[in-house]
Write a structure and sequence with these properties.
The protein has 448 residues and is mainly alpha-helical. It is built from 23 helices and four strands.
């Protein structure tokens, strides 16, 4: 019975990435009637809950317990999120509180993805389904969703870009074409431009790997982790605000983008859209004294800008979520949640760089450090492909198996995402390796 369940889950789990991808863009439809039909909260809660259960069961069946030491901060972060959710159930007073609690619980439990993601077959099958089925369906969605949401749908490419040096020429071309489409479609979608551009820059590490030491990568990683904290302190003290670009740039920088109504218009790339959010989040935490433990995922921060809209529904000048990912962590789970969030990112990035046998995990470690930095700017938590992939990448960084692989073994694994022949070759090499170990091991060692 156990083997049957494992087989069913292994076959079903990859399909979840299609549903998560669709959910990521369903709110960006060009057609309002279509949006109202498919963006049904109850239906998507049921789908999201099913996806979480499948990942939980996948972790139960496929997670390698030898990774437990690496997963300590993931355990702690999920545990603290569960405590925050339980606290939220006692805080909830009205319908909108319970709705917020249920919706946010889906998001805050998504880190369980890291457990099955440490299994290379599971991660490979997820990305394989994405490339073979989800990406081709984009041809349909390109006509349905706004151009600024194209990057949300194609976000999986940002992980594959890291492995471009060892991907076949045909698939390299495909990934570069997709990246170009996202970048050209809407330069005003700054987040998409950044998330697709950074992996391209990071692959330079592969080509200059002979000249870049592990110490250099660790130093660069530390800079990425420390920089936002320093800039935050400078901003709070009034010495320098990095978001007020008009104070230190001589001219206005604009481009053409898509507004919230789907119309193309001129968009400023230097407008400060973050300072007032930090001010609202911090002042709300101090005023209501929840800075240490958080206000729970049931509530948001006091806001007299966007909160005006929420007041019509809830009777409160509160905003449940912000564009700034770390601001949400702080509001929902306090300083304790932020420290745990920092710890898990730093740990995953550190062991990826310092304890891996291949250059690609090291590059992935730098990318995780970048995502920490970017969580101070955007990268907000939602049940989306972007957030799902983040936990997949962290899972790969924490995986002993993935870090132990050589560059050649990584090449076979990555090409297996696009071509099943490499999967068969990979299994053949594994059987050969196990056979050689059995010849050189005593029965006692083999049992261990």
């Amino acid at each position: 019975m156990g083997s049957t369940n494992k087989h069913i889950i292994a076959k079903t789990l990859p399909v979840t990435i299609l549903f998560v991808t669709v959910y990521s863009v369903i709110g960006f439809s060009n057609y309002i009637p279509l949006d109202s039909v498919f963006n049904n909260t109850t239906i998507w809660w049921a789908i999201s809950g099913t996806i979480l259960i499948l990942f939980f069961l996948s972790g139960y069946y496929f997670y390698d317990r030898n990774n437990n030491k690496n997963m300590i901060f993931i355990f702690l972060y999920i545990a603290w999120n569960i405590i925050s959710l339980i606290r939220g159930s006692f805080v909830a007073e009205i319908y909108w509180d319970w709705k917020a609690l249920i919706g946010n619980s889906m998001v805050l439990l998504l880190p369980i993805v890291t457990f099955p993601a440490t299994n290379l077959s599971i991660s490979q099958s997820l990305m394989s389904f994405y490339t073979k089925y989800t990406i081709p369906i984009f041809i349909i969605f390109a006509f349905i969703i706004r151009t600024d949401a194209w990057g949300f749908y194609l976000m999986g490419v940002t992980l594959l870009i890291i492995f471009i040096p060892i991907i076949s020429s045909k698939h390299k071309a495909l990934l570069f074409i997709i990246t170009a489409i996202v970048l050209i479609a809407d330069l005003g979608a700054r987040s998409n431009v950044i998330k697709f551009s950074v992996p391209i820059l990071l692959i330079l590490i592969y080509y200059f790997r002979e000249f870049i030491s592990t110490k250099t990568l660790s130093f660069f990683k530390n800079i990425l982790f420390i920089t936002p904290i320093i800039l935050f302190i400078l901003g709070v003290t009034g010495l320098f605000n990095v978001f007020k670009m008009k104070d230190y740039l001589k001219k206005e920088v604009t481009t053409t983008g898509v507004d919230i109504y789907g119309d193309r218009s001129e968009v400023s790339l230097t407008d400060d859209t973050r300072t007032f959010l930090f001010e609202e989040v911090l002042s709300s935490a101090i005023k209501n004294d929840y800075w240490l433990y958080g206000r729970t995922p049931t509530r948001g921060n006091d806001s007299y800008t966007f909160g005006l809209i929420e007041f019509e529904l809830t009777g409160r000048y509160e905003r449940l979520t912000n564009e700034i990912g770390l601001a949400n962590v702080f509001t929902w789970s306090g300083i304790i949640g932020v420290i745990l969030y920092l710890a898990l990112f730093y740990h995953a990035s550190s062991i990826a760089i310092s304890k891996s046998n291949n250059i690609f995990v090291k590059i992935l470690g730098i990318y995780i450090a970048f995502r920490w930095l970017y969580s101070w700017i955007e990268d907000y938590q939602n049940f989306s492909l972007n957030f799902l992939l983040l936990w997949v990448m962290i899972g790969l960084c924490l995986s002993n198996s993935f870090r132990d692989m050589s560059n050649k073994e990584i090449k076979i694994w990555v090409r297996g995402i696009f071509d099943t022949r490499y999967v068969r070759y990979q299994k053949k090499l594994l059987k050969k390796s196990l056979y050689e170990k059995s010849k050189n091991s005593s029965p006692t060692n083999m049992l261990q």
